[in-house]
User: Fold this.
Amino acid sequence: MAALKPLSHDAIPAALAKAERYRLLNEPGQAESICLDVLAIDPSNQAARVMLILALTDQFHDHAAGAVHRAQESIAALDSAYDREYYAGLVCERRARAHLARGGHGSTHAGREWIKDALAHYAEAERLRPAGNDDAILRWNACVRLLEQHPEGPAVEDASTRMMMIE
Assistant:
């Protein structure tokens, strides 16, 4: 197997611009690869870390194996408490949206649970936010609207409850 080749430090800005373009072209796997190359030579690069988180969340709709876990690991490496809370909320929100888009048994319940987690992270991010930064409020409002669009259905009975009702 061929070995990975390291980027030069001077190439980091152009590489991150290219990663952003790949995200906009709906090629998050390519963006993820570029971010990993940047982080290999500059592990503390916060812009690459955030772009990696976003590229991973872009893959949630495609059932990308381990993308949620990898995104959560990357969040832990963010420097600011605000960023950790905000991006943790974003991971939860995008996971919820993926569940809701897929549909199927239990998807609404799972999506609503992820949204509730997102709201908790956004509330904490709002508390920690820098002056003039209302991004967490914007995401909070989007989540509340999403919950309104997907009301909680009737409680699902388990098999033992149904059996007792039949008897």
